[in-house]
Amino acid sequence: MALQKRTLNFLLTAAAIIFLCACTAYADDKVDIHGFISQGYLKTDHNNYMAETKDGSFQFNELGLNFATDLSDKLRIGLQFFARDLGEDGNDDLVLDWAFADYKWRDFLGFRVGRIKTPFGYYNAIRDFDMLRTSIFAPQSVYPEMLRDAFSFMKGVSFYGYVSMGTWGSISYNYLAGLPNVSKDTGYRGATEDFWLFYNLQVKEMTVDLSHAFDCQWETPLPGVLIGGTFYVINNLYAEGTVGGDGGYADYKKLTYFKKFNDMTGYALFLRYTMGSAIFSNEFWENKTETIIDAVRTYDDPGFLKAVDLTNQGWYVSLSYRFNEIFEAEYCYSEFFPDKTNKNGKGFYPANDLGEVLGLNGVKKQLINEFEAWKKTSTFSFRFDINEFWLFKLETAYNDGFGDYTSADNGDHKNLKRYWWLYAAKVTYNF
Amino acid sequence: MKFQKRRLSFFHLTAVMMLILTAFSAYANDIVFVINKDVKTDKVTREELRDMFLGNISVWPDQQKVNFVTLGDPETHKTFVRAYIRKTESQFQAWWKRRLFTGTGKVPLKFKSEQDVIDYVARTEGGLGYVSSKAAIGGTVKILTVTDN
């Protein structure tokens, strides 16, 4: 039933967009109209990942359509509609992916106001656009699905520019301040519930405060070498919801309600070396989340306050090569650690005052499976550009570990397997 | 003997480099850049030209907007992107699609024939295009000189 509703949503969205496209095309030929539509298939031999993939899943598609026009030599406006489905996330609901006015005062300084793609690392701003990379998935070690919605755009203002430095190469920068895409209707909800599976959290509310991202890329004097970095701060990422009811830990502690306040800071650094048709790329990412949890017992019992600091860490190296106009291949190796202080799953809580109160000092960190402390992945991707508009991709990834947050249903995680394969195929049309 | 061997290697390397550079220059010289007659510039550096076609430089020194177009002819276009943009054709396309789908730019216009490029440049303020050295350029546009520095 749910699947039928999603299919209907997707078809209605597609029809609405095609109709809008046709109307606008007739209305004014000065409006640029471009778009894409893709359909994929996912299959794993063990473990559900992103969707119900053990049985194979077609709940993996994207659709986008953008309209833009120059109002003057310096002022441009545009917007993009976007819909996606990936397992429990997206469900083909139509959203505004970006919509902003862009005033380029000089090449070294421009301003954007509206809903703006968040600059983060090399791939974040383009992760929804399949035609812009060799692989089907952007490396999950640096671009986890958990943060996809939260990092997709911010509503706010940005300053950007490009500065040529002569023999020192050139620098482009982008600073963005605004509200990230966080609410209980976004994919971040599912990932949060998965993270707090231990409490059986059911999120009822999610909000966020003003946040910042600064991105800088340096095209070095060494031909083909691009170095870049992003620093971001996401303030007061708040979630609340019910816990317990499953006979688990929360029930044991008689907890019924849960509030958490996160401050998230992080950075990503990348280096890309392009030599003809070959591109070597690597990227490193760390994301620190400072969390205060307020878990409430019944009858106004104050429960307890618990502070948790967690740092995610991920990196990858990849090499892609375009053999001819049609065929491109890529190999990527990546590692992701949900908790960088517990990379082997055998870590203990460090001794501190809070641990003393909570009785956690020296206690082994609780993971249902030790291999949920890491995910090490080798990915082979093959891209076929059938023509300028159509492309087809195949991908296979061998995974060691399940250190990832996914809204896909894996029950209580006791049946997860350490070693597993992911197979993916995707076809995309863009114009 | 050791010295001779080193000198031999050095001369070999230099000769190979010279051959590559000569071949590269010949490759690059097959392209002629044309601009609108009202643009008050006759000369740009190779880096400036690259920045214009990548959208990093959006105005001419006289503050007219750079309105550049690309050529659909695959051979001339491939020569252009390799020699002047230092990208492959697919990388050049990806560069502009990245801008397009993030809302930060629009894909450059592409014309099928060299005459179409010349006509567009002739009638468009700040127009910039390229054609092969064999094209009949005529007097409606002027030629832009590209220098190394």
CATH architectural designation of chain B = 3-Layer(aba) Sandwich
H/I helix tally of chain A:
4
Largest interface: A-B, 39 and 24 residues
Structural classification of chain A: mainly beta
pLDDT averaged residue by residue of chain A: 85
Largest sheet of chain A: 16 strands, antiparallel, barrel
CATH H-level superfamily title of chain A: Porin
Regions with little confidence, pLDDT below 50 for 5+ residues of chain B: 21-26
Give the CA-CA distance, first to last residue of chain B.
Answer: 41 Å
- What is the CATH level 1 assignment of chain A? Mainly Beta
Q: Superfamily at the CATH H level of chain B?
A: Periplasmic binding protein-like II
Give the biggest beta sheet of chain B: 6 strands, mixed
Q: How widely separated are the two ends of chain A?
A: 33 Å
What's the Cα radius of gyration of chain B? 18 Å
The mean pLDDT of chain B is 84
Proportion of residues in helical segments of chain A: 10-25%
Please tell me the total number of domains of chain A. 1
As for the number of domains of chain B, it is 1
Task: Pick out its properties.
heterodimer, A: 431 residues, mainly beta, Porin, 16-stranded antiparallel β-barrel, 4 helices, 17 strands, 10% helix, 51% strand, B: 149 residues, alpha/beta, D-Maltodextrin-Binding Protein, domain 2, 6-stranded mixed β-sheet, 5 helices, 6 strands, globular
